[in-house]
């Protein structure tokens, strides 16, 4: 017997309908690529997204068409997403930090038909437009006055393009499992793989992420997604914020400490989210200027492990709560959040920081387990680590075009490629990417634990640990560090600082100081590159 409740397909544009109806005046503030701060509202975004849908339809785009975007976080970028989804199209975020050839490869793989692009990225478009045969239309997210005089590529400005429409448009209706969004993984090994979100998965992910024990979002919140919309959906914020009517503050192209601070302060941001590298810049700026963060209540940190010293600085020096989160493009992306259950409610000081080094527990809608190489489930004892696998309505069940089949099993589990352990209370801790873990004498050493420890040294800015071949142990850890400006600690000093805080046999054999540590387009340490740089490195005893 079926229930007698209404069919109400979970479609993303219903989120924007809701925001306009209930929170129409709530602001969206964006630092524009043209320079000025631009203010708009959910009502405006709703009306203009409908015009974007109308204009896309007038140009012949519709159900299933991939509509690419190459832009910073902004109100126009949000309108482009909802406009694309409103005609049944699929917004496809491109990461401008990739090389133009990689972007062209991804666009061809996805067969993108239209492209919304920020002015800042026109050089990329000029380099690739004739290499993507499926591309029929380029819309520049600006107005007529800011359009370049001469361009070898044909394009229109967004404002004139939507300006021709009256906005009298009914969103298209279809099954909630229809594709609505797309994002490629960064492809640190092999080609990037396409993740294809559905309306249903995005709506459910937004509902999951606004929960009090997740991002805890409501209409009183002022949220600044520093994490870009092209990095795993800005962690869902372009869907979850309008779902509850939170004010959004978009940082646009400027993510240096001073620019981020300016918006946090002037817009009285209460909650923000980004990868650790962004917060390193903000914390250095605050340290230099002596400024404080009186409005900010919490910061969500993920994408890479959040170092203990960073959590400590935010919480102890600025009274800002850190929520350490883990997720993946393949998971829409939220997978776990480090908020404290009652059992840890009284933790403080070091005990709390210990728990916050973990990536937290899975919210409703995410199932997780760790297995050994034979696929047997491992105990939740907080120390036995193995392959981390996940399942849920916001988790991919395949990649676009059937790539990476081996990561999905028959029972619906997705192998994340991360190595982790889970404690008795469900708190998960990533110890490595499976390809980065160091195998020493048949045992595994967690590079993330060592990195977190090293950056706790007051003179270290950033640290990365890689395995170096060793005649006796197969591999041994090398600690690679960037020091803080004006500091030059000795290697022994750093090793002494780490001594006693990890098992003796985990201790790095040596420390190398470098000027720069390479990062991927989503801000992760590029260990493949470091391994290449240190390919000929050998320890004294190796
Ligand atoms: P992406 O799809 O670019 O977001 O990358 C996902 C990967 O980033 C995960 O599989 C992890 O390896 C890594 N990652 C994300 N969040 C964290 C975190 N809090 N700690 C450690 N690694 C993380």
Describe the structure.
The protein is an alpha/beta fold and 542 residues long. Among the domains are: 13-20 and 39-198, ANL, N-terminal domain (Rossmann fold); 367-433, Luciferase, Domain 3 (Luciferase, domain 3); 438-533, GMP Synthetase, Chain A, domain 3 (2-Layer Sandwich), CATH 3.30.300. Helices cover 28% and strands 23% of the residues. It is built from 15 helices and 24 strands. It has helices at 12-23, 42-58, 75-86, 100-110, 122-128, 158-163, 199-209, 237-244, 257-266, 276-289, 308-318, 349-356, 447-454, 491-498, 527-533, and strands at 27-31, 37-41, 66-70, 90-93, 114-117, 137-140, 156-157, 179-184, 194-198, 222-225, 247-250, 271-274, 298-301, 321-327, 334-337, 367-371, 386-391, 414-422, 428-433, 438-440, 443-445, 460-470, 474-483, 510-513. The strands form five sheets. It has an eight-stranded mixed β-sheet, with helices on both faces. A hairpin with a 6-residue loop joins strand 14 (321-327) and strand 15 (334-337). Helix 1 (12-23) runs parallel beside helix 8 (237-244). Bound molecules: adenosine monophosphate (AMP). The site of adenosine monophosphate has 21 residues, from strand 14, strand 18 and strand 19.
């Amino acid at each position: 017997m079926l229930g007698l409740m209404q069919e109400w397909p979970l479609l993303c544009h219903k989120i924007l309908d809701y925001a306009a109806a209930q929170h129409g005046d709530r602001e969206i503030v964006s630092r524009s690529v043209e320079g000025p701060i631009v203010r708009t509202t959910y009502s405006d975004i709703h009306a203009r997204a409908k015009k974007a849908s109308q204009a896309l339809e007038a140009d012949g785009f519709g159900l299933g068409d991939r509509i690419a975007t190459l832009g910073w976080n902004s109100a126009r970028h949000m309108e482009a997403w909802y406009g694309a989804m409103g005609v049944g199209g699929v917004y496809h975020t491109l990461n401008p930090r990739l090389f133009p050839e990689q972007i062209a490869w991804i666009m061809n793989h996805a067969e993108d038909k239209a492209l919304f692009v920020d002015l800042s990225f026109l050089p990329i478009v000029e380099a690739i437009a004739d290499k993507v045969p499926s591309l029929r239309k380029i819309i520049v997210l600006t107005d007529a006055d800011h359009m370049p005089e001469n361009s070898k590529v044909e394009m229109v400005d967004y404002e004139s393009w939507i300006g021709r429409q009256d906005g009298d448009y009914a969103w298209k209706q279809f099954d909630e499992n229809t594709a609505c969004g797309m994002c490629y993984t960064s492809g640190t090994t092999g080609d990037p793989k396409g993740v294809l979100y559905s309306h249903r998965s995005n709506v459910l992910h937004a509902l999951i992420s606004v929960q009090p024990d997740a991002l805890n979002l409501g209409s009183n919140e002022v949220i600044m997604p520093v994490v870009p919309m092209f990095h795993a959906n800005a962690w869902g914020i372009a869907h979850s914020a309008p779902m509850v009517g939170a004010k959004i503050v978009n940082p646009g192209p400027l993510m240096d400490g001073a620019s981020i601070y300016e918006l946090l302060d002037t817009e009285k941001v209460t909650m923000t989210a980004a990868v650790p590298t962004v917060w390193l810049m903000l914390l250095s700026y605050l340290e230099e200027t002596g400024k404080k963060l009186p409005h900010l209540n919490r910061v969500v940190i993920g994408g890479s492990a959040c170092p203990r010293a960073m959590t400590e600085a935010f919480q102890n020096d600025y009274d800002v709560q850190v929520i350490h989160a883990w997720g993946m493009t393949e998971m829409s992306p939220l997978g776990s959040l480090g908020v404290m259950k009652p059992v840890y409610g009284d933790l403080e000081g070091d005990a709390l920081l210990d728990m916050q080094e973990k990536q937290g527990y899975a919210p409703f809608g995410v199932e997780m387990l760790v297995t050994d190489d034979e696929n047997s489930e491992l105990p939740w004892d907080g120390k036995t680590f193995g392959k981390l696998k996940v399942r849920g309505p916001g988790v991919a069940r395949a990649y676009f075009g059937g790539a990476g089949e081996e990561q999905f099993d028959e029972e619906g589990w997705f192998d994340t490629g991360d190595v982790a352990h889970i404690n008795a209370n469900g708190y998960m801790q990533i110890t490595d990417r499976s390809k980065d873990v160091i195998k020493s004498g048949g045992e595994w050493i967690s590079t993330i634990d060592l990195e977190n420890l090293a950056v706790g040294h007051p003179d270290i800015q950033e640290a990365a640990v890689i395995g170096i071949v060793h005649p006796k142990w197969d591999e041994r850890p090398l600690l690679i560090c960037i020091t803080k400006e004006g500091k030059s600690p000795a290697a022994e000093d750093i090793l002494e600082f780490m001594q006693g805080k990890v098992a003796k046999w985990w201790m790095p054999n040596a420390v190398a100081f470098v000027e720069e540590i390479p990062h991927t387009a989503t801000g992760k340490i590029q260990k493949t590159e470091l391994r290449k740089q240190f390919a000929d490195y050998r320890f004294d005893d190796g």
